[in-house]
Specification:
- The structure is a single chain.
- The protein is of the alpha+beta class.
- It has one domain.
- Helix content is 26%, strand content 30%.
- It contains 3 helices and 8 strands, in the order E-H-E-H-H-E-E-E-E-E-E.
- The strands form 3 sheets. A 4-stranded antiparallel sheet has the order 2-7-3-4.
- Strand 3 and strand 4 form a beta hairpin.
- Helix 2 packs across helix 3.
- The longest helix has 13 residues.
- It starts with a strand and ends with a strand.
- It binds zinc ion (ZN).
- Zinc ion binds next to loops.
Length: 121
């Protein structure tokens, strides 16, 4: 069990939200996306993103940038480690096999996966 001290960094979290986070991250390899976490905890998107960013910085999560192509807006077509920037263009979409030349055809989201159970203290 790894612990993350929220004091000074995630002070906006209530004790109830920390309980929810502990529940969610009590499993190893728990996954979280910012919008899901925001709904689960009643946070706004930037706050949820802040949690996942701190977990990545602390080495408690590996975050990925999910790549979506407009052919299947709800299905990730690819993923690259977060912080490596955006996919190099042209990029071949594995779903529709089209060659993507413009970033405007793509959209992105973040998927965090914990490396060990995390306790928010
Ligand atoms: Zn596609």
């Amino acid at each position: 069990m790894s612990s993350l001290n929220c004091k000074g960094r995630l002070d906006f979290l209530s004790s109830k939200q920390r309980v929810e986070l502990n529940k969610h991250f009590s499993q190893p390899f728990a996954k979280a996306m910012p919008h899901q976490l925001a709904i689960l905890l009643g946070l706004n998107y930037p706050e949820a993103l802040a949690i996942l960013t701190i977990l990545e910085v602390e080495g408690l999560c590996n975050n990925k940038l999910l790549i979506y192509h407009k052919c299947e807006p709800d299905v990730p077509a690819g993923a690259i480690p977060f912080g490596k920037g955006f996919p190099n263009l042209p990029w071949v979409c594995p779903l529709c096999e089209k060659i993507v030349e413009e970033n405007s055809e793509l959209s992105f989201d973040i998927m965090a996966q914990s490396v060990a159970p995390i306790e928010f203290v």
